[in-house]
Structure formats: structure tokens, C-alpha cells
Design a protein that fits this description.
The complex is a heterodimer. Chain A is mainly alpha-helical. Chain A has 4 helices and no strands. Classes of the chains: A mainly alpha, B alpha+beta. At the A-B interface, helix 1, helix 3 and helix 4 of A face helix 1, helix 3 and helix 9 of B.
Chain lengths: ~110, ~325
């Protein structure tokens, strides 16, 4: 392999601490659900949901870059994996969520509550 | 390099691809990454389908905090804690795995062995926790009534959800009992008859004015399920056809059946990945003990299996967010 094998133990524990803190924040917010974040709207959903999604992507970045050692791979190898996933997932999620919203708009009024 | 020419290679090189290393990554590691990429897209497909369905039923989707409220051995309403525990277990087993890989780089066989062992234990705890979570979900917590127009009605008293046993009184009224093999004419057993009948529940609802009915509909301003008035509740209850206890692929006491279907499918598919990850880890574990990689001069196999294990953790991070948090 191209990269040198210096010991990363310290960094691993630091990332573990970071991921733990983020998870604790997520869980705390999930239990408390402050009204100001939970019951308001921002860009189509609540600010709380945006916080959860951003923290999730933050965790995903650290798992991939540090634990899976993506940071040590060659630039274009990294891109061939990461970009493929990111672009396809963005595309898929966008279309499916728009379609889900459309289904609700058309079918929702037919349900008699 | 003869990149485009198939070269008959020694079968020993099947997993290493020989000396050719495009992008500086060995054949096995590169293929593991591309497998992970395809698997990530599969999981994205499932989660995006979950998103579509949730958007389709956005005004009546079950609220996760009301569904996953249990902790083993403790009674009461504790949403989030248990699944947070599961998340920690998986993150921690990821850490021990990456420590095993790191020890492998330094050819420290003993350390690799112990870190792999810890990873396997972490995986087993996670799968066990998931089995418990499934079991709790299948058994259900309070029970509900399903109406002829496929709605789920739950019961509340003083703002808290209650089970049938908390308010249903009297006789079930139809004399039905579960038909067992023991007294069956054709040695067949019948469907389990629930403890209470729909008519009995209706009669008890009429008799106890403190009981109200919680509908599936969400109040968009408060993000809570709407509790119906006594009159409106009775009107809905009279349409009741079935007692629902727990969740399965046909009915779900927590609301939309398809919520249960997605839960079983996505967490099940993830759980299966964890399970196969544990099996692969065990194989690698014994190879480490036997000194296979010591002889080979490289612990790269631990690294490749580690990639898969981290991926399982990565997927859980997303499942955790989209099933329990958002």
C-alpha cells in the first residue's frame, strides 16, 4: 500500500469520542425535542430534522474517512466510490421524495378522517 | 501492463489479483469497496422507498417515539435509550475492528486476535438486541382496534395510552375460545382468539367516560396524534372489526401496516448483514489464531473484512436516523 503505517491508535480513539458525542447530542435532542426546533419549519421540514440529517452525514464522513481509511486511498479511487454513491443517492432520493409528496397531495384528500 | 489480456494465473492469486494494483489498491480491497458501493445503493433504495411511503402517508405515519419505547427489564415509557445503546455497541465494535486493522499493520498477532474477539462480541450483542427489539415490536405494547376502513384506533386515559386490560370489563359475549389441536376434530389448530372481543371493547368504552380514542391522524401544529372526542370516538369504534395486538406483515397496532413491513425489511436486511459480518469475522479470527496472515506476511485480509464491518456500522447510522430520529 502507498501510505505509511504509522500507528493511528490515538486518532481512532479521538474519532470514537467524536462519534459518541454526536450520538449523545442526537439522542438528547430526540428525547427533549425542543419546540422551537421541532414545531417550526425550515426548507420543507423541521430544523430538528435538518440537524439530525447533518449530524448523520458528519458521522458517515468520519466512519468512511477514518475507520474505512478512505483518506489514505488515491484521489481518483476515492472519487470513483464516493462520487458514484453521492450522486446516485441524491438523484434517487430527490425523485422519490417528490413523488411521495405528489402521492400525498393527490391521494390524501380521498381519505376520510 | 497487459491490462486487457486475460492471463492464466496461479489459483493462489484469485484473491490477490497478482501484483497488479490499479490506484495503488490491491484487487481484493478494490473489489470490497465496489461491493460496498453497490450494497450502499441497495440500502439507499430501501430507505428512499421508505421515504416515499412516509411522504405518501405524511399525515398519519406512526411516531417512532410512541412505537419504540421499551427497555429490557424496565417498565415504562423510555423512547430512544435502547436504540442509542445499540448504536453505541455498533460504533464501539467498529472501533475495536479498526484497532485490529491497525495492530495488523504492525504485525502484532496477539492484539489483532483480542480486538477481533471484542468485535465479534460486540456484533453478537447487537444482533441479540435487534432480536429483542423485533420480539417487542411483534408482541406489541397496548393493543388497538382496526376498523372496516383500515384505520387503527388506540385508547388513551388522562393523556396516556392504555391497554385493553386497563379498561375492558365484562364478558367477551361470543363464547369464542381458541381452537387447539387437542380438541380439534381434524387435528387442526385454529387462529388464536384474542382475550377480548371487539363488542366487549365497545361496551367497556361506553361504560367508562375517562377513556378516549387516539386516531392515526397527526395534528400538524403539535406533531402529535389527534385524540378524538367521546362521540366521534364511538362513531369510529363502531366500525371496529378486529383486535390488533402487536405488529406483523398484515396488521400493525401502531398504525400503518407498511411501517411494520419497512421496519422488518430494512432492519432485517441490516441485521442479516451484521450476522454475515460476524460469521466472516469468526473465520478471520481463527485464521489469525492459526497464523495464516503471519505466514502470508500481511494482515490485509483483516483490513478487507474490516471495511465490510465498518460499512454495516455506516448503514446503521442512517437506519437509526431515518427510523428513530427524523
Amino acid at each position: 500500500m502507498a501510505h505509511a503505517h504509522e500507528s493511528n491508535v490515538k486518532r481512532i480513539w479521538m474519532v470514537f469520542g467524536l462519534l459518541s458525542v454526536v450520538t449523545i447530542v442526537e439522542v438528547a435532542l430526540g428525547i427533549v425535542k425542543p419546540d422551537s426546533l421541532h414545531l417550526t419549519r425550515f426548507l420543507g421540514t423541521s430544523p430538528l430534522n435538518w440537524i439530525f440529517i447533518i449530524l448523520t452525514l458528519f458521522k458517515a464522513y468520519y466512519i468512511t474517512w477514518t475507520f474505512m481509511h478512505m483518506e489514505g486511498e488515491k484521489k481518483w479511487f476515492r472519487r470513483s466510490v464516493v462520487w458514484t454513491a453521492v450522486f446516485l443517492i441524491c438523484y434517487l432520493v430527490t425523485l422519490l421524495l417528490i413523488e411521495g409528496g405528489y402521492l400525498f397531495d393527490t391521494l390524501g384528500p380521498l381519505v376520510n378522517w | 501492463m497487459e491490462a486487457n489480456i486475460a492471463i492464466p494465473s496461479d489459483s493462489k492469486e484469485t484473491w490477490s489479483g497478482g501484483g497488479v494494483k490499479p490506484f495503488g489498491a490491491s484487487y481484493g480491497k478494490m473489489m470490497m469497496w465496489f461491493f460496498i458501493l453497490s450494497d450502499a445503493l441497495t440500502f439507499s433504495g430501501f430507505l428512499a422507498a421508505y421515504g416515499l411511503t412516509r411522504f405518501k402517508f405524511i399525515d398519519s405515519w406512526p411516531i417512532a417515539d410512541e412505537v419504540f419505547t421499551h427497555i429490557p427489564f424496565i417498565h415504562g415509557d423510555y423512547p430512544m435509550y435502547y436504540v442509542a445503546f445499540m448504536t453505541f455497541i455498533l460504533i464501539f465494535s467498529s472501533v475495536t475492528m479498526v484497532l485490529a486493522v491497525d495492530a495488523g499493520h504492525h504485525m502484532k498477532k496477539n492484539k489483532v486476535t483480542w480486538y477481533l474477539f471484542a468485535t465479534i462480541i460486540g456484533g453478537l450483542i447487537f444482533v441479540g438486541s435487534q432480536a429483542w427489539e423485533w420480539n417487542t415490536f411483534i408482541k406489541g405494547s397496548y393493543g388497538a382496534i382496526k376498523t372496516s376502513d383500515d384505520k387503527i384506533l388506540q385508547f388513551v386515559k388522562d393523556g396516556h395510552q392504555v391497554g385493553f386490560a386497563d379498561f375492558v370489563v365484562g364478558d367477551r359475549g361470543d363464547e369464542r375460545i381458541t381452537h387447539t389441536k387437542k380438541n380439534g376434530l381434524w387435528f387442526e389448530s385454529g387462529q388464536t382468539v384474542p382475550e377480548y372481543s371487539v363488542n366487549q371493547v365497545i361496551a367497556s368504552y361506553k361504560a367508562d367516560p375517562s377513556i378516549q380514542i387516539k386516531s392515526e391522524l397527526i395534528d400538524a401544529d403539535k406533531k402529535q396524534k389527534i385524540v378524538l372526542s367521546r362521540e366521534k370516538g364511538l362513531e369510529e369504534l363502531l366500525k371496529g372489526t378486529q383486535i390488533v395486538e402487536g405488529a406483523n406483515l398484515q396488521v400493525n397496532e401502531y398504525g400503518n401496516t407498511i411501517f411494520a413491513n419497512f421496519f422488518f425489511f430494512i432492519t432485517g436486511f441490516h441485521g442479516f448483514h451484521v450476522f454475515s459480518g460476524i460469521l466472516i469475522n469468526i473465520i478471520i479470527f481463527f485464521n489469525v489464531i492459526l497464523g495464516t496472515y503471519e505466514k502470508r506476511g500481511s494482515y490485509e485480509m483483516v483490513e478487507k473484512v474490516g471495511l465490510y464491518w465498518h460499512f454495516v456500522d455506516l448503514v446503521w447510522v442512517f437506519v437509526f436516523t431515518f427510523f428513530y430520529l427524523v
